[in-house]
Amino acid sequence: MVRRGSVAALALVWGLGAAAPAWAEGRLAFFASGEDLATEGFVGAQLTRDGWALTFDHIFVTVTALTAHQAEPPYDAMAGGEIQATTSVVLAGEHSFDLVEADADDRVLIGEVEAPVGHFNALSWRMTPATAGPAAGYAMVFVGTAERDGVVVPFVLRNAEARTYRCGEFVGDERKGFVVAGGMADLELTFHLDHVFGRADKAADDPTNLDALGFDAFAAGGEHEITLRGMHIGHAGEGHCDVVWE
Fold first, then answer.
1. What DSSP state is assigned to residue 229?
2. What is the Cα–Cα distance from 12 to 32, expressed in whole angstroms?
3. How far is CA 166 from the centre of its chain?
4. DSSP assignment of 19-76
5. Are 187 and 68 in contact, with CB atoms under 8 Å apart?
6. What order do you get walking across the sheet with 234-235 strand by strand?
7. What is the DSSP string of 84-120?
8. pLDDT digits (tens, 9 = 90+) for 173-229
9. Predicted TM-score (pTM) of this structure
10. CA dist 125 to 8, 216, 241, 242, Å?
């Protein structure tokens, strides 16, 4: 048994930089973001590669096996392969969310779990077709309106392909994933929509534009099933991920 005085002493030791005991835990939250291209759309200078303005009513995404890792060595997404983790925590179940229904920071809370102290410097998840809800049967669904030269086109684009993303440390304005005893940390699944539609403000031979769909193929409007195979949509902030298609 640890006495009250001992607990206070342990807290002081942790504050001096010693490692917390194995039973110490905090919480880890998982967020998703499509950034301002999801919430504001492809507008202004940020049109699609073929000059369409897009605004979205919904962007549904479904994930499973959402897992944060304390990886050693740090995961190299460019090299690919399995994540070598000393500790992992899983947000169990299937999670469907709408990237448009985000907070002021363009983020959607997926869920949170208890997590041991340490730096969660890697992240993995599967995108799988939803089993229920408005996106049932699909892993990613775009619902919105396109406009170019006065032509307005409502559209629904559905993607059913399953794939696994394995990512290294979040790259952004600040580092993420540091769990301390009794504290809250977070990680982010970031979806770069310009990899799907391209960007008119980038060069035509920019790698993003070379692989992107654009919107011309859907100019008649209506509903379309699309392939996203080979596109690197999922990231951890600006950090790259290895993608395994099923």
1. T
2. 35
3. 11
4. PPPTT-EEEEEEEEE-HHHHHT-B-TT---TTS-EEEEEEEEEEEEEEEEEEESSPP-
5. yes
6. 108-116, 25-33, 184-191, 234-235
7. -EEEEEEE-S-EEEETTS--TTS-EEEEEEEEESEE-
8. 999 999 999 999 999 999 999 999 999 999 999 988 999 999 999 999 999 999 999
9. 0.89
10. 39, 31, 10, 11
For the stretch 104-125, pLDDT in tens is 999 999 999 999 999 999 999 9
Taking alpha carbons only, the member of 217, 218, 212, 216 closest to residue 197 is 212
Beta bridge partners of 29: 112, 186
Token pair, residue 32, equals 């998703």
* Pair 200, 45: CB distance under 8 Å: yes
The two tokens of residue 57 are: 């009513």
Q: How far apart are the first and last CA of the chain?
A: 50
Scan for tokens 């907070």, then name that residue.
Answer: 103
